[in-house]
Design a protein that fits this description.
Layout: H1 2-7, H2 27-36, E1 39-41, H3 64-82, H4 89-106, E2 109-115, E3 121-127, H5 133-142, E4 152-156, E5 160-162, E6 220-227, H6 243-246, E7 249-250, H7 279-288
Parallel strand pairs: 1-7, 2-6
Antiparallel strand pairs: 1-3, 2-3, 4-5, 4-6
GO biological process, one term: intracellular protein transport
Organism: Vanrija pseudolonga
Domain UBX: 105-156
């Protein structure tokens, strides 16, 4: 009896009736394909990773090029925000869809690495147009039979959650609103942090049909597992992976460090120690007077 239960197929939460299936591959098929390309990495050693480098105090002094670059960045961002044309929701949606399509053409797949509390990581690739649900199914297919019934949530530090399903509404926050006093506020399109409800790509997922591209998880991302059972979140708790995955554990590859070319930094101080002010900054200050 126990052997029959062990051989039973793993129920996937994202399985849907055939009538509701899209033209593309189903979530269950996407998870199965990801499991066939899974890679398992052991927890990193304590001595791995780049060693901290002692920086000289002159490194933190601003040069003329640093001030010019900062001024150009702030001025350009201010110009884009102030001179941007007013668009209707139809054109905003079309612009957002064009940007997402451009991103999908550049990165058709997303490499997702899932990290457990002990540091063990599993990695696979998913279509960038796939929602977050196949990632959950992929993790369940990788778990041992003892951990299949355990519930978990994927997140990124510090508190960016990617739930599998939409969270239930909080009755404490539900307040009667007079329809005559209700105002519809249109959030700016990717202009920064938006307060209020969760916005895709800014504050994590909503558990809906947002793609990995819309969630900002392409081309590659690391997601952490948070179990509802607090004991499984301890760093000493071993990753509850299936036996065939534990046998294929490989050491975590060392990070590649790009060689940086040091540019000559022009100091702001002259030979006499006086602070030299750029001409463009002097003109800006004189205009304000």
């Amino acid at each position: 009896m126990a052997e029959d239960q062990a051989k039973a197929p793993v129920p996937l939460a994202s399985d849907a009736p055939a009538a509701e299936a899209d033209a593309g591959p189903s979530n269950a098929q996407t998870a199965t394909d990801a499991l066939s390309n899974v890679k398992v990495f052991a927890p990193p050693a304590e001595t791995s990773g780049p060693q901290p480098v002692e920086l000289d105090d002159a490194f933190f002094e601003h040069s003329i090029s640093d001030v010019q670059a900062l001024h150009a960045s702030v001025a350009g961002q201010s110009s884009r925000l102030n001179n941007a044309p007013l668009l209707t929701s139809k054109y905003r949606d079309a612009d957002r869809a064009a940007k997402e399509q451009k991103k999908a053409d550049r990165w058709p797949t997303a490499t997702i690495r899932v990290k457990f509390s002990d540091g063990t990581q599993i990695q696979s690739t998913f279509p960038s147009s796939s929602p977050i649900q196949p990632v959950y199914d992929f993790i369940r297919l990788s778990l041992s039979p003892e951990a299949l019934e355990k519930t978990f949530t994927l997140y990124q530090p510090p508190r960016t959650l990617y739930p599998e399903k939409p969270p239930p509404p909080d009755p404490k926050k539900a307040k009667p609103v007079n329809p005559a006093m209700k105002a519809h506020i249109v959030a700016p399109a990717n202009y920064g942090h938006v307060r209020g409800d969760v916005v895709a790509g800014l504050q994590g997922g909503t558990g809906g049909k947002e793609s990995l591209s819309e969630l900002g998880l392409v081309p590659q991302s690391v997601l952490l597992v948070k179990w509802d059972d607090a004991a499984m979140n301890a760093s000493t708790f071993p990753a509850p992976l299936a036996d065939h995955l534990k046998a294929s554990v490989a050491p975590l590859p060392a990070p590649t460090v790009k060689a940086e070319t040091q540019k000559e930094r022009k100091p702001l101080t002259g030979s006499g120690g006086d602070v030299k002010m750029p001409k463009w900054l002097q003109k800006g200050l004189l205009k304000k007077k």
